[in-house]
Amino acid sequence: MNDEVTEYPSAGVRTIAAASLWAAEQYGGRPALVCGGRRLSFSDYLGYARRAARGLIAAGVRPGDRVAIWAPNSIEFAVLALAIQLSGAALVPVNTRYTPREAADILARSGALLVFTVEQFLGRSYAEELRALCGEASGLLPQLPRIVDIDAPDSPGLHAFLAGGGAVLEGELDERIRRITPDDIATVLFTSGTTGQPKGAMLRHGALVRAYWNWGSLLGVRPGDRVLLSNPFFHAFGLKVGLLLSLLHGAAAYPMPVFDAEAALDIIERERISFYPAPPTVFQSLLAHPSLPGRDLASLRIAVTGATSVPPQLIYDMYDVFGFGQVFSPYGFTEGTGVATLTRQGDDRDTVASTAGKAVPGVEVVVLTEDGSKAAPGETGEIALRGYNLMAGYLGRDEAFLDAQGYLRSGDLGVLDERGYLKVTGRIKDMYIVGGFNVYPAEVEAVLQAHPGVLAAAVTGVPDERLGEVGLACVVRRDAGVSEAELAEWCRDRMANFKRPSSIRFVDALPLNASGKVIKDELVALAGES
Description:
GO terms for molecular function: medium-chain fatty acid-CoA ligase activity. Belongs to the ATP-dependent AMP-binding enzyme family. Residues 443-517 form the AMP-binding enzyme C-terminal domain. The protein has 16 helices and 26 strands. The mean pLDDT is 91.
């Protein structure tokens, strides 16, 4: 297959807001969102989102403002995300695994005026946790954004919020939509830097629409496809590859609040799911489920998997056990709108298992040597991008993010072969990926070293069969009485679960080089000796 993609049907459709109007007209009564027995057509989806957008205007949200969602996958999440963008504001998704302190930090940094959240999820009250942090006493969230609970369609907070929009004329919303440009910010996705300081990557309407129209075309997604979305919507994979791509291509999205292997298999079988984008851990869980052999999975046609190292055998099993017609392997990162490379229809399974594909149309992917020159085929260097897909910058930061040649450096190591196919070989910045989520050692080390009984700590990622990688922490104790259980509890109160080290080893000293920097390559051996 060549790299040409279908031209977007209308020259005027260059924002997410305009795309939603086009999709409602184009796909109308086709199912757009299906969850928990509820089904919304594309027309219903837009109508609900317009009501919510009028509610945002009534609440004082202006173009360019930020509005956050801290909630699990649901129809309401999808509708409100679109509503925020219809109003001219920017969506700020917040990781549902974050502790209250971590969430409050994102809300404070983004300056969100309003947050949609839930009263109950996984035994926690997110709304109550935020209220408890508000005020001068904690200093974490001096000014609490307005909180709207969205646990259910009939939640009192959501009902009152929607009712408030009744005072806003449809024409006022239409004018808001008309004024949105492709260069306006649609989404701010926070991603940690090497220091652990969260940075908000500002992603533009035009880049997002182009990127995920192209992606869907390359994948072969078509109107009427049914997409299972167990990837969380706070993540680019779930939000963009899931919701946005489905909207653009007329596919029905099936959000799952929490991944459960048996529930996922039930939905695939009952609803005839045809497209499943998910990290390797999800497919490994499905393969291990005892009911898999008796399932009818004949509807499955397309899979996308990545976000961590993918065992080749898993790719083979996705073809042979699940029966996918085509499996795709991608590479991308938040600052590049999530897209860079992708394998292609017709690529053999070995190519899918061993590479992340080649550059998508309109995006230049290069591997640079230490002196900034392009690496030869087969030569390792830093992966860098240039093209329409690059972010507008980091929210609230003036720092330069492009090099002198206009490339966005990834911090990842990779190799391009003679065909232009990319293989990711490592991470310069020591970041590792746990079940599809990026973890930065400096952030984990800072939490460990804040414990009064810890003198020093160093963290690295180690291979894990189920999650791809997990964290290993080597700790030098200040107080010999500090236990592994005590530090695990300390981390549990201060970090999302995917960030917490899977194992903690006590050592007499950390391996340091002449500059006093920890030699990360020696940590695993050191931990084995402890």
